[in-house]
Structure formats: C-alpha cells, structure tokens
Write a structure and sequence with these properties.
The complex is a heterodimer of chains A (221) and B (408).
Chain A: E1 2-13, E2 16-28, E3 33-37, H1 44-51, E4 59-64, E5 67-68, H2 74-84, E6 85-89, H3 100-105, H4 115-128, H5 144-155, E7 162-166, H6 174-191, E8 194-198, H7 202-207, E9 210-215, E10 218-219
Parallel strand pairs in A: 3-8, 3-9, 6-7, 7-8
Antiparallel strand pairs in A: 1-2, 1-4, 4-5, 9-10
Chain B: H1 5-15, H2 17-53, E1 59-63, H3 68-73, E2 81-82, H4 84-92, E3 97-110, E4 113-120, H5 123-128, H6 130-135, H7 139-145, H8 158-164, E5 175-178, H9 180-186, E6 193-196, E7 199-206, E8 217-221, H10 222-229, E9 234-235, E10 237-242, H11 244-258, E11 262-266, H12 268-310, H13 312-320, H14 325-363, H15 372-397, H16 401-406
Parallel strand pairs in B: 4-8, 5-7
Antiparallel strand pairs in B: 1-10, 1-11, 2-9, 3-4, 3-10, 5-8, 6-7
Helix pairs in contact in B: 1-14, 2-12, 2-14, 2-15, 11-12, 12-15, 14-15
The chains are: A alpha/beta (221), B alpha+beta (408).
Chain lengths: 221, 408
Amino acid sequence: MFDIHGLTKTYTRSKQHVHALRDISLRITAGSFVAVTGPSGSGKTTLLLTLGGLIQPSAGNVTYGDQNLYTLPASQLATFRNRTIGFVLQTFNLVPYLTAVENVMLPMLPRETNGMDTLRHALDLLEKLGLADRATFLPRELSVGQQQRVAIARALANDPEVILADEPTGNLDPSLANEILDVLDDLNRSYSKTVVMVTHSPQAAARAREVLKLRDGMLVS
Amino acid sequence: MAFTFRTIVLKEIYQRKGRMVSGLLAITLGIAVIVAIQSITSVSRQVVAKKLDLLGANIMVLPQGATVDDYFSADVDAPTFPEEYVERIAASMIPGVDNMSPKLSRRIEIDGSSVILTGILPANELASKPIWQASGLMGAELALACAPSQNKESSLTEADLKAQRKAVDSLGMNEVWVGSQIAERLRVNTGSILPIEGRTFKVTHVLPETGTIDDNRIFAHLHAAQLLLGINGQVSNIEIMGCCSEISDGLLGKLRNILPDTRITTIGHIVNTQIETNTLMAKVALVLLVIIILVGSFSIGNYMWANVEERRREIGTLITIGWGRRHIYWLFLAKAIILGLVGGVLGYVVGTVSAVILGPYLAGLEIGPVLAYFWWSVVVAMVISLAGSWYPTYRAARIDPAVIMQEV
C-alpha cells in the first residue's frame, strides 16, 4: 500500500531550518491500523499530510500502490485524495453553513454522480453513524461528538481505501473519544479500511494494531 | 433541490448576507451612478444638440470656384447654381442633413444706399415640398431645427431669434424683413411700404441689431428675389445644418458626390463647437465609467479578498477532500457572477429611478427609462465583479491545505 523511502521535510521559517521529518522509511500495508505517536513538534501531522498528498516532501518519495504521489500533476493528486483517502481532522472542519448531510456529500460533488444517489448514500452513512435524525442540522446545532461522526461520514463518502485521522479524539471527552475509536476500529475490522491515526493519547494508540513513535522528525520505533 | 456547487454558492451568500451587502452595494451604487448619468446625459445631449443647431448652418454649398467671401460680398456677377440642387440633396436622403436653406444674394441700390437683397425660402414652403416629406424632413423637424432659443432672459422675440438665424416660417411674395441699419438708413419700420427695383414690398419685420453684415441686408422670398433680379431658378448658396457626428463621418464627401459641380465647405467655428461639445460629453462619460469600474472592481476585490481570508479553513478542507482548483475557481467566480447579475439589475433600477426623479430637479430635464441600459448595466456589473474577484479567486485556488490543517 504505502511505501515511504527516505522521506524528509524541512521548513524554512525566518531563515531557520526546521526538520519536521528526517529520512523516514516505512511500509504501511493494506488493512492495517497504525497509530503515530510522539511529542508535539515530532512531525506526526507532517507525516500524515505527506501520506495524504498534501505536503510536498523535501526529499524521498511516497508511493501508493504503483503511484509515486509527488510526481502526479495537481489535478491527479486531487483525484487521488478524493477517491482513495478519507480525512478525519481534530477540529472536524465541517462547512458551517451546510447541513450534516450536505457536508457528507461534499467529497462526492467533484465526481458528478447522480444527485439522488449521492443524497441516498450520504443519508445511509449518517444512519450507520447514528445520525439519521440529525441530517438536516447545521454543525453548530450538533454536539462535538456528533460533529466528529459527521466528519467521519464525510471521510467515508467516496468509500476510500485509507482513513487518515489527525487527533480524531483530541477535542472529545473520554466516553466520546471511545465512541469515535470504536467507529475507526469497526471501519478497520469490518470494512478492511487502512487507518493511520495521529494521536497524543496512549489510550487511543492502544486501540491500534501497530504504533509508530516519532521524535524530532525521526522514527524511533 | 439537488445538492450542487450552485447550492453551496447560494447558501454561502445567504449565510453571510450581511457582509455581502457591502460588496453588492459597491456594484449597485456604481452602476446606478453610471445609469443615472447616462440617462441624464442622453437627454441633455439632445438638448445640447438642439442648442447647437441654434448656432445656425454649419455647411455651405457654393458654386464651383466661389468663396464664402463671394457670398457675403454678393457682387452683381457672383456665380450661381440651380435651385433644383436643393431637391437633389433631399432626394438623396443622406443621413445627417438636418435642415437646408437655399439663398440668393445680390447687392442692389435703394434710395442711393447699397444694400444686400437676400432671397430665402420660408420653412412652410420647404416643408410642403413632397420630396421633403419623402426624405423625412417634415415640417415638424424643420420647426425643431429652427426652434428659437428658450433663453428667457433674452429680450429678443421669437421672430427676432428666428430672423437672426434667417429661418423664416412664412414670408409672402410681397413681404420683406429688413436689417436694423438699413431700416434706420431708409427710415422704415414694421408695416412700412418699401419700393425695391420698381416693385413695392411690405416690411413685416425689422431685425434686431446683430453687429454683422445682416444688419445691412433685406430678406425677401427667394422666388420674389429671383424675379426681381432676373435670375430665375438660380441660388447663390445652400446653407445646411448637418449633424456633426455625420460631418466627421463623411457627410461632406457624400454631398460632393451628388453635387460635383459645386464647392462644399464647412463653417469651421460652428462645426468645431459641435464636435468639441460632443467630444467633451463623450470624454466625461468615459472618465466616469473608468473611475466607477476601477472603484467598483477594487471594492468587490476587497470584499472577495476578505471572503477568501474568512474561508481559508473551508477552502483548505475542500482541497483536502479532493476538490480541484477548477472547483474552487467555480465556487468564487459563480459568486462573482451572481453579485454582478444582482448588482447590475439593482443598479439599473436605482439609477433609472434616481434619474427619473432627480432629472427634473437637478437638470431641468424630463427623463424616461432607457431599456438599452439594462443589458449594458448587467454586462458592466459582471465585468466589474469578475475583474475584482479574479485575483482573490486565484489566491483561493492556491491556498496550501497543509497550512490550514495546522492552523488549529
């Protein structure tokens, strides 16, 4: 699935070089559930966004199947994100003026699929995540747990092979965090989705079947 | 309703309608100002054109080889050409010929005084000629072209003003109008009988002093003057009121083509005044249009820039979930098109209503709606909106989604 070789990312800020990732090589196999842990600034989110085709690495390459992601033109990289990756973010990033079901339909718009099929599929996803009666609610009318479940439904809209989750439980209390982890676990076990989850939380990391530890941009285990 | 890109655009506009008002206001007011000014200037242009017409003829048709000096000196042997040329011009229906006045002038002696006798064709006879009606130069238009000034401060009567411009509504075969100097010299007044070359004429009007050669001129009916001078069917010149835009667009050449054995010249200062006035009005309108497009585009650009900044996280999220640049472009340019469309329609309505209400107070003009400005308003508003939105949209499509994800 993901083959990462010599991945390096260096930011230059105020003439200072910040080494976010240093020569990382690893392989993430299809159907795995990987937690990426480490202290703040260790490069966890940078690694996740690089896997998602959002950050051009300074050196090294990221291959998904037989596609070297960063040799693809921008439009094909967008299509890769749209069809292959589902993003779940700490702050949910729901569009505030769209209803829950409309937020779920957002990734399906560039695919130009039939409108009714799109709506039906989005409602199915919300139902599976226990939000059937919240479909027409705006994000501000939902609890944080419900908002995160809408974000997960949006991530699943195009039936991606990979879920990339950045601190998915970071804004949730422990019981809500467990609910979300259950959902990710179920996606991995029941639907064979590959899940890569960045987290600070040891409890969340414990739910994964593989844990990668980063420190100062380097893979330590 | 199906969920489409359009739904997102409309929902975003509705959700942030308060902030959108400023952007919409910029376009609406800009278009309203242009429409109001254009509505007023189009009417005032007609008024100015009429006032420019009052300056008199601006094209002179003279016999081949003659000069304007020949016409003014009116010597006994001054050349002439057939009166039939007047009908030839009318029959050609050349656009831009607003009015014509054929004249025959000769210097004669009355009681030992040298005066110029000028035969003119009164407007009522011009209007009654069938060829005139066929060419569209109807009496009403002649009256319009010969309308007296509306200057109420002037002490001159309507007849005086018409006489100053030598446009006479009606003049009998035995009637004359007499210039002020010659009237004084010959001691005649309105109602006097004046013998000329063995025939008697009634003085129906003594012209006010003009300070020109006309003060020493006697105006008679053209055909009476021809009989009196023994030059039947001939005229010394034809004065033409030409519309200045056509003058600069080849009117003289067209006249020369149909009257090849004549000399056709413009009366420079009148033509120049007309052209300068029209050019000035066109320039003022153009300057206003450019200013409003610049200010409107800047205002819309400012609003769209703020909108992009406000939606950085949203745009970053859309790029993250796989929206391409063209989708982001569409999201913002569709909004610009809607703003332009609504701004154009509102601007037209506000501008037209303002012009209709304020026109009579501010410019003393009755102004009606000009439907042609509707499409113009919509197109200009779209141009303003798209021009102002282009760069913010370009920036939006290039937002780095990774940076947005880290802005927590």
